[in-house]
């Protein structure tokens, strides 16, 4: 994103903040009945530090700067230590009833799927030490998706006139099924099925020469799995062919792509104790990938997070600290302030996201595959699988997990993200209060460091 695009976005966000709600001096007013304690805790995020106070009204995504002492008093009200005063009620009323145009959130169309994960291979040529998928087979058979399954997928999409945001090729190692990938892309194009983009997560140790043309033809976005420095990558990402130097092979294949005018979109690094013991922080790893591989888009995954809850809130802790505005920070601001940007809290697995395996089995996402029949939604060869009782049972199970978390009443619901598979298997791993504290710190950093505000006295 260019600097001009970033500036346009910042001007847009400042307009949310500079629309009659930036208040430093609060006037006495007539006491009104405004809310009970439950509503105060549900819809208002109060942030108080020694130098700055903020209120974030969750339903309308309104953010206001207030005196830090006033913020501290409001937090005491949230804790039930004292009653709201008339002045405090007037402040909260003014934020709740601000002169903002009511905007409807754009919804996905009925015939649109956000993402289809096509698990084209349950085989893998690596044997990573932290693999949660049993070497890529998800406790099932090792296989390559046959063309018959690919045809069934295309037929379902065509008959139901479905548009797809992203077709994600997954594994195992998806590159082992490159012929199926080429066939699928060709069939989707031939049948005029709308696809936003094609993507793939690959260990990039296998890159057939004849597949390079189709990577370019279909503009397949490749995320390369590599764990940083050679000594760590080769220690964690073990080749089943003992003669293969994993790190060097990945680098060679990245260069092969670049020599053909192509490139990887990102790298995905699984962060483990090996990194911590070697002194690699997230910032050092990002610097390494930029300097050594020329890659700036780095996805860091903690090995322990796959089935142990979503700790990604920690990643927000240092937002808005540096002079530059990152794409991640801009994304956070959109969730924080833009009424058109809807946050579902939980991923859309099972609703607008599905994983299809080589035999045609359908799951909410690939993480559910080890649970077999318990969360299998159907099979792509089944007629109207998406209207079957089997599918409905799975959806009810997912909804029960969501309701268990009481997200609709949480102050962090506009910007919190959770993996439903992780929550399902380890519900106590989600620390909502900790996450809200981190989000509050991010908002505070934004107000202090990046937000241009005018002080409107009321």
Blueprint of the fold:
Elements: H1 3-17, H2 37-43, E1 44-48, E2 53-57, E3 62-66, H3 68-78, H4 86-96, E4 112-119, H5 147-159, E5 163-170, H6 178-190, E6 195-202, H7 212-217, E7 220-225, H8 230-236, H9 246-259, E8 266-271, H10 273-277, H11 282-293, E9 298-302, H12 327-337, E10 353-356, E11 361-363, E12 378-379, H13 389-404, H14 420-425, H15 432-449
Parallel strand pairs: 4-5, 4-10, 5-6, 6-7, 7-8, 8-9
Antiparallel strand pairs: 1-2, 2-3, 10-11, 11-12
Helix pairs in contact: 1-12, 5-6
Helix share bin: 25-40%
Backbone structural class: alpha/beta
Q: Count of helices? A: 15
Q: Alpha-carbon distance between the termini?
A: 38 Å
Please trace the helix and strand order, writing H or E for each element. HHEEEHHEHEHEHEHHEHHEHEEEHHH
Main sheet: which strands, in order across?
A: 9-8-7-6-5-4-10-11-12
Q: How large is the radius of gyration? A: 25 Å
State which percent range the strand residues make up: 5-15%
Describe the sheet with the most strands. Answer: 9 strands, mixed
Low-confidence stretches: 1-35, 99-109, 306-310, 453-458
Number of strands: 12
Based on Cα principal axes, name the global outline: globular
The average pLDDT value, as a whole number, equals 83
């Amino acid at each position: 994103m260019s600097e001009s695009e970033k500036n346009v976005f910042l001007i847009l966000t400042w307009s949310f903040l500079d629309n009659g709600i930036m208040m430093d001096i609060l006037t006495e007013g007539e006491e009104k009945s405004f809310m009970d304690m439950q509503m105060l805790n549900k819809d208002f995020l109060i942030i108080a530090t020694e130098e700055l106070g903020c209120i974030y009204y969750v339903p309308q995504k309104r953010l206001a700067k207030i005196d830090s002492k006033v913020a501290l008093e409001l937090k005491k009200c949230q804790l039930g230590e004292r009653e709201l005063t008339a002045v405090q009620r007037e402040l909260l009323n003014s934020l709740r009833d601000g002169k903002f145009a009511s905007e409807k959130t754009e919804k996905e169309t009925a015939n649109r799927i956000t993402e289809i994960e096509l698990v084209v291979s349950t085989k893998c040529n690596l044997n990573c030490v932290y693999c949660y998928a049993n070497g890529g087979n998800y406790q099932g058979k090792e296989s390559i998706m046959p063309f018959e399954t690919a045809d069934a997928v295309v037929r379902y999409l065509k008959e139901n006139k479905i548009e797809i945001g992203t077709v994600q090729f997954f594994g195992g190692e998806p590159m082992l099924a490159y012929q199926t990938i080429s066939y699928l892309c060709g069939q989707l194009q031939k049948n005029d099925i709308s696809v936003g983009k094609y993507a793939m997560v690959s260990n990039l140790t296998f890159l057939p020469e004849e597949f390079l043309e189709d990577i370019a033809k279909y503009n397949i976005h490749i995320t390369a799995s590599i764990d940083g420095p050679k000594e760590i990558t080769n220690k964690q990402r073990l080749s089943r062919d003992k003669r293969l130097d994993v790190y060097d092979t990945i680098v060679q294949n990245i260069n092969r792509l670049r020599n053909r005018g192509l490139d990887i979109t990102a790298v995905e690094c699984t962060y483990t104790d090996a990194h911590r013991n070697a002194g690699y922080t997230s910032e050092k790893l990002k610097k390494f990938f930029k300097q050594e591989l020329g890659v700036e888009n780095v996805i860091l995954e903690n090995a322990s997070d796959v089935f142990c809850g979503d700790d990604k809130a920690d990643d927000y802790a240092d937002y808005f600290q540096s002079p530059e505005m990152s794409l991640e920070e801009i994304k956070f601001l959109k969730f924080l302030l833009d009424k058109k940007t809807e946050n579902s809290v939980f991923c859309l697995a099972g609703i607008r996201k599905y994983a299809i395996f080589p035999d045609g089995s359908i799951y909410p996402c690939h993480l559910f595959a080890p649970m077999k029949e318990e969360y299998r939604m159907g099979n792509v060869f089944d007629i109207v699988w998406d209207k079957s009782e089997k599918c409905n049972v799975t959806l009810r199970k997912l909804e029960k997990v969501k309701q268990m978390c009481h997200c609709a009443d949480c102050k962090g619901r506009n910007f919190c993200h959770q993996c439903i598979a992780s929550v399902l298997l380890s519900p106590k791993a989600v620390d909502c209060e900790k996450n809200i504290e981190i989000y509050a710190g991010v908002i505070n950093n934004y107000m202090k460091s990046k937000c241009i505000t005018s002080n409107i006295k009321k």
